[in-house]
Amino acid sequence: MLATEIYAQVIGMSNFAAGTTMSIVLIVPCLVAYLVNAYWVGTKSYVTVSAGRGRRSGRRPRPAPAAVRPGGRAALFIALIYALIPLGSVVRLWGSDWSLSLRHYAFASSAEGASPIWNSVKLAALSGVIGTVVALAAAYVVERKRRRAGARSKP
After folding, report:
1. Which tens digits make up the pLDDT trace of 106-128?
2. What's the predicted TM-score (pTM) here?
3. Would 111 be classed as within a structural domain?
4. Exposed, middle or buried, 14 (CB in 10 Å: 0-12/13-18/19+)?
């Protein structure tokens, strides 16, 4: 719902300010989820064990080009684009009137106001929580089955 409304505001009504404001509503929960995941997973150490059947050529792999490395120019450009989204939501008129304003956060451009937008955010949060619980339960069941199967196959 929210992505469709953003598209309608930007493409259909040429209302870039409303589109960027709604994008903030969509990006903030995604960014929070990413940061929580990065903090949680970043503190853990994972090791991949292989059987050693891979080919070894004796040559060292070439490093990736600077444009695709994490600190490269491409990452900086993408970060710059994402940094412009909040700016677009707090200026009066993108490109001509750069004075700061929070009037776009009233969501007056939508016929029902902010109600459909907040309903979308609530539904996304609820589906995220339910999806996470289902995925964790499925992973638990699969891991339990794997451990039982492994215990039976050992002599």
Report:
1. 766 556 666 777 787 788 889 98
2. 0.36
3. yes
4. exposed
